Amino acid sequence: MKKYLPCLYLMLCMCFTQIAVAQTTKISGHIYDQDSQKPVSGVSISVKGKNTGTITNSEGFFELKSSLPATLVISLIGYARQETEVASAENLRINLVPAIEELNQVVISASRVEENILRSPVSIEKMDSRAVQQTPSANYYDGLVNMKSLDMVTSSLTYKQINTRGFNTTGNSRFLQLVDGVDNQPSGLGFAMGNLFGPHDIDVESAELIPGAASALYGPIAFNGMLNTRTKNPFEYQGLSAQTKFGINHIGDGTDLGAKPLYDVAVRYAKAFNNRLAFKVNASYLKGTDWYANDYTDIDPNTPAGNRGPNNPGKNQLNIYGDEVAQTLPNIGRVSRTGYEEKDLATYGVYSLKLSGALHYRITDKLEAIYQGNYNQGTAQYTGSNRFVINDFKFVQHKLELKGSNFYVRAYTNHEYSTNSYNTRALGQQINRTWVQDLTGKTVTPDKADATWFERYAAAYNGIVAGVTQQDHTVARSFADAGRILPGSDAYNTAKDRLIQTRGLAGAGILSQCSLRHIEGMYDFSPILKVVNFQVGGNYRKYYLNTGGTLFDDKDKNLTNGEYGFFAQASKSLWKDHLKLTVSGRYDKNENFDGRFTPRASAVFSPTENHHFRASYQTGFRNPTIGDQYIKLNVGPIIILGGAPVNSQGLNAYENSVTIASFSQFASAFGADMQRGTPFPQAVANNKDKLVKSNVPYIKSEKVKSYEIGYKGLISKKVLVDVNYYFSQYTDFMINTVVARAKSNILLADGSVNPAAAAELLGADRQLFQLYTNAADKVSIQGVSAGVTYSLPKNYKLNVNTTFIDFNIKNADPNNIPAFNTPKWKTNVMFGNAKLTDKLGFNVAWHWQSSFDWYGTFTEMRPGKVQAYNLVDAQVSYRIPSLKTIVKIGGSNITNKYIVQAYGSPAVGGLYYVSLNFDQLFR
User: Fold this and answer.
1) How far is it, in rounded angstroms, from Cα 789 to Cα 619?
2) What keywords are assigned to this protein (predicted)?
3) N- or C-end of the chain: fewer Cβ atoms within 10 A?
4) How far apart are CA 610 and CA 720, in angstroms?
5) Which DSSP helix (H) or strand (E) runs through 523?
6) Structural domains present in the chain
């Protein structure tokens, strides 16, 4: 680590040079609404170029200390941001002008420095604290679905995954989520769990979304885009806030279980002392009943589509587990075991506990130190290669940050503790192996259970068992299921609990206690250089893996992985600020892969203050996740092997194997020769040349190049128009391939296939491997997103946006390309009025998207249709000023249409709620 941190060390030294003692003067004043001349509380007042700042009290009064002269930056959502020069310690009277919201928006994520959203060099969306309060969705995170380009997939009541611009999954490792600059992914999982471990609405200040590659500034995880959520600063948002929400879901869900309650309680308290020290604490708890995954469609790939259904003896039902185990029995046909419904295996009582605190200390008016700690614990269902229960999962974060007006140095750690999580499908299969009886009535061991069950089935069907009707699948299944333990019974619960605590192939439990440590910094040289804006930054992170050998080869080992990166960015405004040019570049290096350089260039042309045209060229890349690199899982007939070179040392899987396609051809031809009576050695010699030595490269990063043009502007200061077009090309997608390894060398010295190796591949010395590698195929996507926000008279607002995306697979092999999993069209319409009267407001949001095929590992990459659907969210709010309280009645999906967003995941219905929000009491 020492080798990679000289730049961060230099930045840290430069930071402390800013600590200086200057004579300060008390500045005070009052702030009023220009139209009503009433005092305005909660206004943020900061000194430009310094960390000094405060907020106004209920009388609109503020007071702070600063050296003079000073420039005060005054801002409040709903009012125009303004700067006031102060030359003397006079008592100020400042009038705030109601703002055109879209003209006043400031974003940070697009360039890592503050800039007006209209002049952002790339596409960016923002949800501010006012939008958080007004969202009709159940929470701010669910409300993100109304942003242009964003896709949202529900796996659980407490887990929703987001993505932009295609190649979507339910566990999205191509999308970066930051909360106050901290990567929000549990390192063992390799992706952020939606907002299960994020902030509660009560502490969210804003959320900024960058759709598309952001690797040039944020590194490899931001391949598809980035969401940057900022929480409320305790200096600016003081007092006690509390929210209580009661909801109800599962109304008319087609089951006999009835409607279920949902509870969500949150408290936040913040306090500042003398503009030097401030702290905040947050606590929230949500509890409810998860959405049910109860699609029992028969998806067995070995049964013709016309023969599938409830009467198919070999049925494999989507959300029933254990029936994946099947055999083709002689003279009977395909038969599958009787499975268990997900509702009897999963943990549908879900919850989310979030505790956090932060301490801010302003060392000087230009230097601030911050400590922040987060403790999260919760339960959710996750649809991956199986349905997983992320059960009582604990996620702990610590952050230390030192920042000034033009720099920061930040260090943080993420620790995950997963000891009760489990694989629902594996649980169903393993329970099925605990009770099977042989023909004498004796319960067999788990390793013999499946074979014995099929023997019983065949015996009953073929009439071998006395007193059992033959040639009847229903009777045969009933006989084979003798002794089956039923859900709810003591035996079932005992077996379930034991198997959840049993990790590895003999059980269903999952252990992960992985962590990461990260340090980064940035310095803005713009105030020094003046003629050009210039920023540099860098980071180093290290992963620490601990799954007890259940997933990685880390049992009794210190398995780690490190990576670092540096970036630089320069921008310059020309032609009297009508043209802004920005170039940036980043270099990243992971210890297992070659370094990558990712440049970005953009231009923003602003002929007038309200009209802005932009063009950009962006590149991105994605390093393999920790799982892609280090998984080493022996699942019996095959070993799943991550693509980091160190992970396969001594196994000879990449170096001495044959392609699975050539092995299949060889084995088939060899078998045909043997049936004709050809002696074994001769049959091997006749067909060995059908074997093809594999040439599987070690895994490397995925890459994208993207071109974008766009326009954002205000018309008559009432209509905001935002439109963009992009074209992206992708290469080196990560894929899996299967090979067969022999002990002897595959090839002889002359390049011919070794007969000894060919013979070994036919016997017990053969070992199959699933390897992680990359495909050479190229594909492209193009898309258009457009949005119009219309500020209507009397505070009404209408927002409409639509997104079109087109995937061109070109000549690529579909097996080499990850699933696109994105609707071609989606549209959002929002209409509301936060000030229908002085106390009453409302908001309605409509979301629609077209149908598409979903490909996922849960169904072994076989497609399942996600039907087109539309959702309506709505809320009505009532303010009680004397109590500083807002009462909100609303609902998500108020028409209660049960819709599936990813094939195999649950159907999501309506959720209706009443909430009380007490804001900034005792400030």
Assistant:
1) 30
2) Cell outer membrane, Membrane, Receptor, Signal, TonB box, Transmembrane, Transmembrane beta strand, Transport
3) N
4) 9
5) strand 515-524
6) 2-99 (2.60.40.1120), 436-484 (no CATH), 628-699+739-774 (no CATH)
Q: Is 316 exposed, middle or buried (0-12, 13-18, 19+ CB in 10 A)?
A: buried
Asked if 262 and 911 count as a contact pair (C-beta separation under 8 A), the reply is yes
Q: Kindly report the backbone phi and psi dihedral angles of residue 259, in degrees, each rounded to the nearest multiple of 5, phi listed first.
A: -65, 150
**What is the DSSP code string of 529-584?**
H-SSEEEEEEEEEEEEE--TTSSBS-TTS-EEEEEEEEEEEEEEEETTTTEEEEEE
DSSP helix/strand/coil, 414: strand
Query: 380: helix, coil or strand?
Result: strand
Closest CA to 802 of 851, 847, 833: 847
Between the two ends of the chain, the Cα-to-Cα distance in Å is 44
What is the sign, positive or negative, of the torsion defined by CA atoms of 337, 340, 341, 345?
A: negative
Crossing angle (nearest 10°) for helices 660-675 and 680-687: 140
- Collapsed DSSP state (helix, strand, coil) of residue 753: strand
d(CA 765, CA 637): 12
CB 122 within 8 A of CB 212: yes
Instruction: Give Dmax (Cα) for the chain.
Output: 107
Those residues with Cβ within 8 angstroms of residue 11's Cβ, 6 or more apart along the chain or in another chain: 407, 409, 521, 522, 523, 536, 537
| HSE-up (13 A, CA, CB side) for residue 141 | 28
DSSP state letter for 631: B
Amino acid letter for position 3: K
Dist. CA 319–CA 340, nearest whole Å: 9
Q: Give the whole-angstrom CA distance, residue 751 versus residue 688.
A: 13
598, 588 Cβ separation under 8 angstroms = yes
B/e letters for 422-444, b = 16+ CB within 10 Å, e = fewer, are bbbbbbbbbbbbbbbbeeeeeeb
CA 190-194-197 angle, 5° bins: 85
- Nearest-angstrom CA–CA distance, 302 and 321: 17
Q: How far apart are CA 417 and CA 547, in angstroms?
A: 10
Give the separation between CA 222 and CA 622, rounded to whole angstroms.
8
Q: Report whether 91 contacts 50 (CB < 8 A).
A: no
3 state DSSP class of 16: helix
Per-residue CA distances from 770 to 200, 350, 458, 626, 733 (Å): 41, 34, 33, 16, 16
How far apart are alpha carbons 104 and 350 in whole angstroms? Answer: 40
Q: Say which residue the tokens 């890349």 belong to.
A: 621
Report yes or no: 726 and 783 within 8 Å, Cβ to Cβ. yes
> For residue 697, which amino acid is it?
P
Q: 319 phi and psi, to 5 degrees?
A: -110, 35
* Locus of tokens 């609109």: 60
Distance CA 873, CA 135 (A): 9
Find where tokens 């974008």 sit: 708
Residue type at position 374: N
d(CA 65, CA 552): 55
Nearest to residue 221, comparing CAs of 626, 780, 822, 642? 626
pTM: 0.91
Q: Residue 298 has what DSSP assignment? A: B
